Amino acid sequence: MDAQARERSSSAEEPRLPAKKPEQPSFKDRQANSETREKEKPSPSLLDRLREHRLLASFVTCLLLAALIGGTLYWFSVRDYESTDDAFIAARSFAVAPKVGGYVTEVPVTDNQHVNAGDLLARIDDRDYVISVNQAKAQVAVAKANIDNVKAQIDSQHQQIDQAKAQLDQAEAQLKFAEQEEARAKDLVQKGAGTVQREQQTSSDLRAQQANTSRAKAALIAAQLGVKTLEAQLESARASQQQAQAQLEQAKLNLQYTRITAEQAGRVVKLSGAVGTLATAGQALMMFVPDDIWIVANYKETQLKYMRPGQKVEFTIDAYPGRKLTGRVASVQPGSGTAFSLLPAENATGNFVKVVQRVPVKIVVDHWPDDLQIGPGMSVVPWTKVK
Fold it and tell me: Pick the residue with more confidence: 84 or 209?
C-alpha cells in the first residue's frame, strides 16, 4: 500500500506533458491506399456487369434486332430495283437562226424566258422583201396578160380557120362546076356543035379553079398551123405565169421568214441577237430548249437483264434532293454509248481491256413539277423497278 501510494504521489508530483497528435497521411499515401483497396476488391463477373447494365443491354439488343429486321426488309425491297448515278436530264436543244438576212429590228424576248408556240422571237427588217413581193405580183400580172393575149389570138385564128374552110368549100364548088363545063365543051366539040374557043375557055377556067382550090387548102392548113403555134405560145405563157407565181410565193415566204417565231413551247437561252445586228441566213441568234425533256440513264450492261420498256422509275434530282418524281422506261438504246461516239472503241487492235460498258436508257417523266427550274444536263438518280 505504501509503495503504491508513493508511486501515485510521485506521478502526481511529476509534470504532465501534452499528448502528441497522430500524423496525417499525405495525398500520395491516400492515393496509394485507395489503389491498394481497389486492387484488393474482387472483380465483378460478366453476369454481375450485365445485371448492373440490364437496361443498356436490353436497349442494345432491341437496336440490333431492329437493324437486322430493317436491313432484311431493305434488301428485299432494293433487290428489285436498279439504280445509277450516271444519269442526267436531256432535251433536243437547237439554235434559232433566220432563214433570210437583214438587220434585226425587234427582239421581244430575253434570257431564260419561257415562250409558247407561235410567239415572236425576233424580227428582221422586211422592207426589201415587201418590194420583192410587189415585183413578183407585177410579174404574175404580166404573165396573166400574155396568156389572155395569146388566148385572144387563138380565138381569132379559129375564126380565120372557119373563113378558110368556107373559102375552100367555095373553091371546091367552083372547081366542080369548071370540071363540068369543060366536060360539056369537049363533048360539044367532038359532036361538032361547039367551038374550039369555048373548049379552050372552059379548060382555062378549070385550071384557074384548081389553083384557087389549092390556094384555099393551103390557107386552111396555114390557119390550122397558126393555131398550133399560138397554143404553144399559150403553154409558154402559162409556164411563165407559173414561174412568176412561184417567185411570188417565194417572195411571200421570204417576207414571212423575217418574223422568227417559236415552233414549240420552250425557253430561250444564250440570247446573242440584238436590235441593229446585221444577221445573215443561218446565223444563230439564240438557243432554244423545248419543254419536251426526258432522262438519259447510263446503266451498266450488267444491270439490263430484267430491264424492259414500260417499267416504273422513281428518281430524285440532285438540285432538289427532297423531291421524288416518277416516270417509266421508254426505250433502251441498242448498243453501248461508246459504240455511237465520235471515236468508237476498236477492240481488234490487240490492246483490248474488258470493261463494263454503259448503255443509255431513255426515261420519260409522268409529270414535271411547275415549281421547279429543270433543264438539260442536270443530274438525277433513278431507281428502276425491274421485277
Answer: 84
β partners of residue 361:
297, 332
- The three cell numbers of residue 282 are 443561218
Q: State the Cα angle at 154 between 152 and 158, rounded to 5°.
A: 120
User: Scanning the structure block, which residue is given the C-alpha cell 500520395?
Assistant: 28
Burial class (CB in 10 A: 0-12, 13-18, 19+), 72: exposed
Over the stretch 267-308, which tens digit does the pLDDT of each residue have? Answer: 999 999 999 999 999 999 999 999 999 999 999 999 999 999
* Distance from C-alpha of 148 to C-alpha of 157, rounded to nearest angstrom: 14
Q: Which domains does the chain have, with CATH numbers?
A: 81-91+290-385 (2.40.30.170), 98-125+262-283 (2.40.50.100), 127-257 (1.10.287.620)
Q: What digits encode the pLDDT tens for the residues 66-86?
A: 888 777 766 666 678 899 999
Query: What CA–CA distance (Å, rounded) separates 271 from 248?
Result: 33
Q: With beta carbons less than 8 A apart as the criterion, state whether 230 and 151 touch.
A: no
Torsion angle of C-alpha atoms 371, 373, 375, 380, degrees rounded to 10: -80
DSSP codes joined into one string, 231-247: HHHHHHHHHHHHHHHHH
Residues 6+ apart with CB under 8 A from 297: 84, 86, 87, 360, 361, 363, 380, 382, 384
Eight-state DSSP code of residue 121: E
3-state class of 86 per DSSP?
coil
CA distances from 288 to 53, 95, 108 (A): 68, 6, 15
Q: Pick the closest to residue 121 from 138, 101, 106 (CA basis).
A: 106
